[in-house]
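We treat protein structure as text, and this decision shapes the records that our systems exchange. The remainder of this section carries one protein's record, kept here as part of the documentation:
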Amino acid sequence: MTETGENIRILHVDDNQEYLDLIEIRLPIEEPIFQIEKAVSVDEALKHLNQSEYHCILADYNMPVKNGLELLRAIRDKDLMIPFIFLTGQGNEDVAAEAFRSGADDYFTKDATFAHFILIINSIKQNVAKYKHIKQEYQATINLRKNEEYLKALLSSLDDVIFVFDMDGVFTDFYLSQEGFRTLLAPQDFLGKKVDDVMGPNVVIPLREAFVKAGETNQMYEFEYNLMLDNETRWYTARVSQILDPQGIPSGYIAAVSDVTDMKVNREKLAESESLYKFILENAFDYIYCVDYKTKKYIFISPKVTEVYDVPLSEIMSTKDFALTQIPKIDHEYIINEMKKREEMPDQEHFISFRIFNKSHELRYVEQRSKVVTENGKPKYILGVFRDITDLKAHEQFAKQRQQDYLDIVACLLESIVSIINADGLFTRVYGNEELLKKWKINTKKMIGRDVWSLIENKYTPKLRDKLEEQIRDQNRGIFKLKVIANGIRYYAEINIVPIIENDNCDKYAVLMRDITSQFDKSTDEYDGVVDFDKE
């Protein structure tokens, strides 16, 4: 059976009915998990493939009207990811070579004595397992990209500066707004350095203590400090938590830093953020290249590219469309279509991810950005950067866990509720600070699938819908102030809503909701609506 516990379904294509019947009986005897279905022609086989799914295809080479090679090409042209094995009486080396060039996975000659059946059985099992792994990795790529977009959208709704440290207190990453540059060091002055070498004792001492406390308690630890900037004292609150890897082993710390100067000076009103913060998650592209638009030969390429292709740089530079020669044949149509799109839209940046086989026949995954550069109105060069993302594929599970960790940390550090709402206004994900969830009587599981408009009092619903529709139309971040009723008590909340854009479409929204009751002035401040969590 396959890894999922299913039998292996095989489509056997041969114009010899006796041999079809023989294989249908003999193969399951040798391997009971094999289920054989038969087709006597290429056209009949293609009908079977349109109606059912198979794990493997066995095919004769010589058949009337259309031969096995034509069937193979038709399947590969459709991008069907299915093993294809020739089982034929045509034992010609030239035929076998042509079969492999066209994308066949194996080739056997018919043997009435069944002496090599064990080889055929092993080939079927190995190729079924290989193709299953390729499909899973491809799907993992899609899922990883979606997860990264969710993270970017959520983090862009935050008003804090976030720093990431390793276990030694070295800055390893950050998410910083433009406003942050006015109050903090430039990135090159702290990334890769210990906090002890960058900040003063009034920051280092409490931060080191926070690292220890967060590690001992496995909870968020908060402290306050100040800095003298432009002859002005600025106050900050830092909330520190320990980061655990998927095995539960401490791997570093994350600190969310808020400028609380205005809150400290005047608690009647918090200063609203003037720009979105950027979340830097992806690594810089490793390889840069320039291709002559007409000849399609490389003019320049980073020498480190040899680490990906495992071939000399001179071979890459001298070969036309070198990358295409390394791409699996099953992906050729997709790549060629993407290249056409780039030529049709030369003024736009083009993004694509694809697979390659290096010289050692190792499957690698590559992500590329490119753009056509014109000279006197005519295409001249193709400029691009790309990187090997194979390791990212291998660590998809870690990325998923990282997303969950960040969502939980964001909700806890900011003492807020973070949720995802779809285009129909239904909650699809809800995360929150435990104390705030309890205070507002919110059950995260019961919130999933609930209509957000059912929580808003009717007289405010049209107003909020109009504001939200305007925000969606302009694809801007929206900030609202609402009165919250929970457990019969009135609170006030600030709501930040950010559209999540995927493939130029917006059908989801990241929502950050925090309690501002202590800062809300009932005599002067206005609110946009009333949310009643007591509604059933």
In short: Residues 268-285 have pLDDT under 50 and may be disordered. The CA atoms of residues 294 and 380 lie 7 Å apart. The first helix runs from residue 17 to 30.
